[in-house]
Amino acid sequence: MCLDGVDLNLLPALDALLSERNVTRAAERMSVGQPAMSASLARLRKHFDDPLLVREGRTLTPTPLALSLTPLVREAVAAAEAVLGRARDFDPQVNRRSFTIMASDYVTLILLRPLVARLAQEAPLQRVNVIPVQADCAEQLHKGQVDLLVLPTEAAGGRFNYPHRHLFNDRYVLVADPDNDAVGPELSTEDFSQLPYVAYSGPLQSIADAQLDSLGISRAVEMTTHSFVIIPLLVAGTPLVSLVHERLTRCVAEQIRLRVVDPPMPLRPISEALFWSPRHTDDPSHSWLRERIAELAGEL
């Protein structure tokens, strides 16, 4: 398809190149060979009279023009996918599709890892790219830079006026090393406040820490991390403690020895939900993937 001599098939290739910043991964995402993707990049460079991606060491870095094009290209591709998606049914055994899901590493481990494993068996033509939750997650969802967002409804609050679907609940538990004598069955709030604490310090505040703040409970923070999944590893073999998702402790139980106890304060459980842009509500491929994710969430 062409518009004033421009091959519009280059748009998805440009989107993949700007997102992946790697010719090989972009080719895999588009299900084409690396030579074909390299040829598309060469044509794009000629059209824009700009290198778009320049090599710095082992990585490709976008030029200022490429950075300015990124949100426009993503919106254009998302709009095209929405239009064309309504024009036909989606057969996961026949139609190829690449989805980008924004989720925490905790959700990636307990929910999206099983999703990828199931798709490999049931729908091998489909590709799932997972990126970490970022502060501008709502904006990225609006612009079509991500297809789906998994986030606790408590974190979304009133900022997310998007269609969504409940996936699962989880509660917080206190974790410590099994040999940590400071953590016993009768731990008090005062004792908790004096224990060396690992805090999550990501783009969005931890729901657990937000609740502790609202309860006026202090923490002796000794370490911070951007990863939920790494926290049990930091606790094991150290005097550190933390509040983590109970499902996460079950997932790592065979690999990490932990003492898991109820926290000494009342904490509300969290509700993980799946969010998407209204433009994708009736998209057959999005609807299919949302159902697959919901099915897996129901099996947790």
From TrEMBL:
Query: What are the protein's GO molecular function terms?
Result: DNA binding; DNA-binding transcription factor activity
Q: Which InterPro entries match?
A: LysR-type_TF, LysR_HTH_N, LysR_subst-bd, WH-like_DNA-bd_sf, WH_DNA-bd_sf
Q: Where is the HTH lysR-type domain?
A: 6-63
Gene3D superfamilies of this UniProt entry? Periplasmic binding protein-like II, Winged helix-like DNA-binding domain superfamily/Winged helix DNA-binding domain
What PROSITE patterns has UniProt attached to this entry?
Answer: HTH_LYSR
Looking at the keywords, is Transmembrane helix present? Answer: no
Alphabetical UniProt keywords: DNA-binding, Transcription, Transcription regulation
Similarity comment text for this entry = Belongs to the LysR transcriptional regulatory family.
Protein name, entry field:
HTH lysR-type domain-containing protein
State the organism named in the record.
Answer: Streptomyces malaysiensis
